[in-house]
Protein 1
Amino acid sequence: MPNPSPLPEPSIPPDPPASGHPGHLPAAPIPPSVPPTRLVYYSDQRLGSDHTSVESLFAKYLPRHLEVQVVYHDPENRPPGRVDAHRLVIPREQGRDDFLRQVSQVTPLTARDIVVVRNIFSVLANLLDARRRGGFRVGFHGSFPHSYRRLAETETLPFRERRLPAWATLPTRIRKYCEYRYKRRIERTLIHRCDAFLPISERLPPLMGIDPARVPIFPVPSGVDFALIPTPDATPEPTRESGGRRLLYVGTVDPLRGPEVLFRALDGLSRRDWTLDIFTRDADFTREVIANSMRHHRERVRLLPPLPRQELYQRMVSYDVGIGLIPPIPVYNVSSPIKILEYFACGLPTLMTPLPECELLFSRAGCGWFTPFTVEAVRERLGEILETPLSECRRRGAIGRQIVAAHRNYETMARFLATFLLSPLPPTELSQTPAPHSPWMPGSP
């Protein structure tokens, strides 16, 4: 279906630069001998994983602007080979340790290539060591602060799940903190040696200690492929089946996300005219949390298995409200929550916590509900949602859908990313270029 017509730029202030990070400030540490004309993208995904940004941004839309080879792991560990014009596979077992040799068996890397690695620092280190011999450029795509996540789990989970006093976890916390600082220093050094850094948001480089004067930084947030999004449900409420307001949660359910906050809030509602469907791979853990958090409304919560992306979108448009409750802790404050974007793209107004990106995109537009991450606050917002007429929910969802179409459409994002990757400017010119806001952020030129 055609993309929805984007709204005029919403009156949302631009995201202020994080401390020490002036935004997109290119400055190449190693001047390329020739402009790159091909991207080789190590996806860290198995073939057939149906990952949103890998499949839509890198394998589908970016090839419209430059030659792209996306490298996947073969779960069956077959020899390196080509899947189609834009996709390669390498054996999963050897891929990380011997990436360069495995890929070169299918397509040799040359000075016209920029090789971008997604999340795997061991592959990045090997490529940086081989860069001078091969003449190619090297970039790193950081989609999530995985090292910091392990520290966050140590600091958060013992108190939430096991109710341990601070002194009981102090040795573990000190050890994890030292491990994190050590890894952070190594990761920072590797990224500073790159020719490009593609973080998930403008807030990730400061968390990782990245100096924007030492590496070109171009944020690549989460987005949506609107070619896969069906038309949102327009069935009038009186003609529906009974059951009340239909709530939807899609994605991971784990201790760090604090799912007990949502379930305790739901359990305290006096109204029963609602249902919640949860599509997740974490069904066993979710059942455990529900059993410990809910006494009155368990029958109103249904667990469903994950679906392929396009089939999931077909189901999502039939719901009324998306649930996007994520605790506003540092590991998530630097993220770009894909499911919230997908809820809005499917026309669902969403219950959200005030993560920086959610506030930036949606807070001034009146298209969702923001809440502090506490049981009492979430319960109050849920009651407000149940009182809101369905027509108003759909109006809010339509506004959110247009905002996502205007600022998080992978088809548009691919054009800006290609321009950055193909830039032939030498370091002296790049470092003197003014630092524009990310081109797909509200408030951008």
Note: The chain has a mean pLDDT of 80.
Protein 2
Amino acid sequence: MSDTESIEDLAKKDIDELYLMLDEASNPQEQGGLESRGAEARSQRGRELFERYRDKLYDVICVDLNYCSNPHMALGSSAVVQAVTLALGVAGLVARALITIVVHFGGRAFCRCGS
């Protein structure tokens, strides 16, 4: 995951690729040994990490930022990334990876907004 790719573009990738991206962002010290762990194990680890942060992400995006009342909010904006980074206490790349997965699912679906 690079800082130059937009979250919206990254969110178009397959969900397993996004979980791999989250695993890579959360474990930068392991970059050299990632190939030996296997994609399936890395994807599972990314999925577990997302599930660990899901409730807090919901609190930040859906409650604190009130996404359902502002569905045109750009989830990939630097303000949202910063809010998630601070609330979760994670690195910026991890926050971007988590938000990318939320965008992949859709903000309205993630926040369970009414129709």
Note: Residues 7-110 form one domain.
